[in-house]
Amino acid sequence: MRTHNGEKPFVCTELGCGKQFTTAGNLKNHLRIHTGEKPFLCQAQGCGRSFAEYSSLRKHLVVHSGVKPHQCQICGKTFSQSGSRNVHMRKHHSRIGTAGSREREQPESLMGSSLLEESTVHSKNLISMNSQPSLGVESLHLPDTESIIGVEEGHDIHFHDKKIALLEAGPRKEYDHLPDSYSNRVSSISPGSATLLSSCGAWDHVCSLRLKPFRRMQVWDACSEAMIVFEKDDLDDMGYIVENDVIMSALTKQLDAVADRVEVFYRSKAVGYTWPLPSHSCDTSPWVQVELADGRRLQTKLLIGADGHNSMVRKEAEIKNIEHQYDQSAVVATLHLSEATDNNVAWQRFLPTGPIALLPLSDTASSLVWSTSHDHAQELVAMDEESFVDSINSAFWSNINHSDFIDTAGAMFRSAISLLRPSGTAVRQLPPSVAKVDPESRAMFPLGMGHATEYVQHRVALIGDAAHRVHPLAGQGVNLGFGDVACLAHHLSAAAFNGSDLGSLKHLLKFETERQRHNVSLIAATDVLKRLYSTTLAPLVLLRTWGLQATNALPPVKEQIMAFASK
């Protein structure tokens, strides 16, 4: 909404600056100008220049690409950078002046997209038989991950001469105006994922539709008084709760912007694959052939499987998958609060049957994710509205699982911590009370854990739930997928810049190594937490109580946890 009403509440406090911004993220990027931080590094051989903003890096990469989209309107000479063109015009055409030409100059805010449009070699129609995209993405029912890889590569200057095909099993989803009711399928978007969406232009669309930032996360145990609070000292946003349909709509708009480079096949399904021999590793080797249900055939140098935890790409490539079913289901619903609040806290309580989470959607609405046994989940979905609301409030407020022994031991340990670190404990807040549930918003789905033993093979890469599946208690499922996208896009961009074969294992293995190190750690930690909080045995309850209290009293440890989850 701030984009429309012009509100800019985030102000730079550096002396003599005073610039204002609509979001905390934009202010954070701006502050790098004052601090000198330049985290975005050019990977071109022999360059090594660094930049404070990703957009500046993208503009710089044009120098290496050889593309010269900025033309002098007087003599017709072309330049890779608008600044070089302007210097040329002042030097050689000063009598004519630059005022007229500046009127025809592309707005600076649109430079990234307009530059790509001018420099792209338009691809042929991929609907024709035996068309040969350089990059193919197969998706079935988790649209966020594969759509963003298509958008990211479509916007990459190094892919201006590549063909990209995106197979989407579902229909096209785009909203100019969202329905008044919220969807029951939402995602917790980390700052790192928001940066990725921003880099390809989709985040502005998300902000123009709707999202709810949260600045604090409170997690506590139903069997004790132990809790942990995550928040940032600078009051920056910890993350954003966004409906999946909003993300899809934003990515669809960005796919339209690169329609000359990315061909999307909606309501399509792959029914067969023909794989090249692994021994063929040069550019002239056979490509992956994909047969669609309607009889069409595509060929691609690299097939990216983003088709969910039941991935057909993974199965057809004979990549083993380690799976475990949790014997739990997640119940989701859209809830209305008893009264309006700032509602900028994400709440989660570990019950003996599984965690229950309340995620903010607006000042008066929140989204429920309740992990519990299959039988209890069916009861929750089937019960009347009043009983359902009572069950939710009881799950957040009841102390029926407490014991005097655990409470006493926890209180003694907490007192000892307060003596050692008087300012090390956070203030406990009370969760909001739920008044009603949106009709027809209740649903349930089974939970499990999975991890592919390999993310890549010759001309094949897996991302998102096709490569890994995690329990929702950490709220990191979609962020792991977006992390895969960012990493794979980085390595493919470097390969395209160097003229390498996109399907070669040389750079695909770098992606696999980098992502498995991150993903395996998070999946394992999540699985341990799930098992640790699924018991009511007093020794284990006491152990986790002390552990949670100790972690909550150590800000550096919490900062490391937040930093890891934000990647």
UniProtKB/TrEMBL annotation:
GO cellular component annotations of the record: cell projection; extrinsic component of mitochondrial inner membrane; Golgi apparatus; nucleus; ubiquinone biosynthesis complex
Catalytic activity entry: a 4-hydroxy-3-(all-trans-polyprenyl)benzoate + 2 reduced [2Fe-2S]-[ferredoxin] + O2 + 2 H(+) = a 3,4-dihydroxy-5-(all-trans-polyprenyl)benzoate + 2 oxidized [2Fe-2S]-[ferredoxin] + H2O; a 2-methoxy-6-(all-trans-polyprenyl)phenol + 2 reduced [2Fe-2S]-[ferredoxin] + O2 + 2 H(+) = a 2-methoxy-6-(all-trans-polyprenyl)benzene-1,4-diol + 2 oxidized [2Fe-2S]-[ferredoxin] + H2O
Keywords carried by this UniProt record: Cell projection, DNA-binding, FAD, Flavoprotein, Golgi apparatus, Membrane, Metal-binding, Mitochondrion, Mitochondrion inner membrane, Monooxygenase, Nucleus, Oxidoreductase, Repeat, Transcription, Transcription regulation, Transit peptide, Ubiquinone biosynthesis, Zinc, Zinc-finger
Top-level taxonomic group: Eukaryota
Cofactor: FAD
PROSITE patterns: UBIH, ZINC_FINGER_C2H2_1, ZINC_FINGER_C2H2_2
UniProt membrane topology term: Peripheral membrane protein
Cited SUPFAM superfamilies: beta-beta-alpha zinc fingers, FAD/NAD(P)-binding domain
InterPro entries from the UniProt entry: FAD-bd, FAD/NAD-bd_sf, Ubi_Hdrlase_CS, UbiH/COQ6, UbiH/COQ6_monooxygenase, UbQ_mOase_COQ6, Znf_C2H2_sf, Znf_C2H2_type
Pathway listed: Cofactor biosynthesis; ubiquinone biosynthesis
A molecular function GO annotation: 2-methoxy-6-polyprenolphenol 4-hydroxylase activity
SMART domains noted in UniProt: ZnF_C2H2
Disordered: annotated span: 83-108
Cellular compartment(s): Mitochondrion inner membrane; Golgi apparatus; Cell projection; Nucleus
EC number per UniProt: 1.14.15.45, 1.14.15.46
C2H2-type domain: residues covered: 10-39, 40-69, 70-92
Gene3D superfamilies assigned: Classic Zinc Finger, FAD/NAD(P)-binding domain
Function recorded in the entry: FAD-dependent monooxygenase required for two non-consecutive steps during ubiquinone biosynthesis. Required for the C5-ring hydroxylation during ubiquinone biosynthesis by catalyzing the hydroxylation of 4-hydroxy-3-(all-trans-polyprenyl)benzoic acid to 3,4-dihydroxy-5-(all-trans-polyprenyl)benzoic acid. Also acts downstream of coq4, for the C1-hydroxylation during ubiquinone biosynthesis by catalyzing the hydroxylation of 2-methoxy-6-(all-trans-polyprenyl)phenol to 2-methoxy-6-(all-trans-polyprenyl)benzene-1,4-diol.
HAMAP family according to UniProt: COQ6_monooxygenase (MF_03193)
Family in the record: Belongs to the UbiH/COQ6 family.
Subunit and interaction comment: Component of a multi-subunit COQ enzyme complex, composed of at least COQ3, COQ4, COQ5, COQ6, COQ7 and COQ9. Interacts with COQ8B and COQ7.
Protein name: Ubiquinone biosynthesis monooxygenase COQ6, mitochondrial
Species of origin: Ficedula albicollis
Gene that encodes it: COQ6
